[in-house]
Amino acid sequence: MTTAKQVVSHMIEQDLFSQWLGIEVLDVKKGYSKIKMIVRKEMINGFGIVHGGIAFSLSDSAFAFACNNRNVLSVALDTSINFLKPVYVGDVLTAQAKEMHNGKSTGLYHITISNQKDHVVALFKGTCFRTNKTLL
To answer: For domain 4-130, which CATH number applies: 3.10.129.10, 3.40.50.720, 3.40.50.2300, 1.10.275.10?
Structure first.
């Protein structure tokens, strides 16, 4: 039987963008993932704060790891994000994805992104479509 950790390990080995972000997987369970990264200077926009695409991408990776870790290939169907607080160079961001619904063809996930002070800086919601394929 393939475990959630085996699936996510395989995913991150193939995911060059998550590797570039510097993502570290902290925890994985069925329908759940927790990951972190450190914000680097090349991730900052012209206003001196993290580019919104970085927080979105971190959330999207947590979403992908949570919705695929049962070894059913799932792809994003709809996503949205709310930015609550600015993020700066050196901040350590943690994204925690929790499954709200696990259906046969869709899944719903809420992802909370917090900084090193445990302040919630963004909220992400993702709906996935489940295919009939496996990852491993």
So the answer is: 3.10.129.10
Cβ-contact 67, 107 below 8 angstroms: yes
DSSP single-letter state for residue 55: H
pTM of the model: 0.97
**Interval 110-122 mean pLDDT:** 98
Question: In the block, which residue shows the tokens 């619904």?
Answer: 101
Residue given tokens 């996935």 in the structure block: 128
Q: What is the rounded distance in angstroms from the CA atom of residue 74 to the CA atom of residue 109?
A: 12
Query: CB-based contacts of 65: which residues, under 8 Å, 6+ apart?
Result: 8, 11, 12, 25, 28, 33, 35, 97
Q: How many Cβ atoms are within 10 Å of 34's Cβ, its own excluded?
A: 20
